[in-house]
Amino acid sequence: MEQESLLLHLNAPEGPDENSRRLVLDTNACLDWLVFRDSGAQAVGQALAEGRVRLLSCAAMRDELSHMLRHASLARWLVDADAALAIYDHHCRLLPNPQPGAGQRLACSDPDDQVFIDLAVTQRAYCLLTHDRALLKLARRARSLGVRVVRPKDWLAPGFSPGQTTETPSHHPPQAPQPPTPTPTPPSGRSAERPRR
What we know:
By secondary structure, the chain is of the alpha/beta class. The protein is built from 9 helices and 5 strands; from the N terminus they run αβααβααβαβααβα.
């Protein structure tokens, strides 16, 4: 199946094509990884810790994540925003805000999400992970530009466990902060929404 081969390739060891290791995560996918500890997002975190993929970001994306980590809607999760950002910074490559050229602009119906698809396309990332419907609607057009737009849970390759380590890391990156116990369920079964500007 095409989807299965895509997922297996996303979790493949480093190869000659550096682009195949580049990921972009939108803010809610980052919150799933750093705060809510969603199983699909944790698989991404595991791959980042093992150096099998690279996370791309830019100033605008980092600023939004920083704002959301301190947002009142996350107060009950007792988030250590500085610790979460330290993990994010450790794993990401910070790039200039994207400036799409001719033929690279895919207009997103939600202006707040435009930066994610712009960065993925301009940096030739292999995959953009998101729950956002506006971004997921761009999946077919983005594919023609070499970018797969999928949900974090769809990134999880068959046979890969979030707790599985396929190689021993040469360093010990910061670990994601543990949520309080018991952990509340995110509103409506999904990550907290970003505030609208």
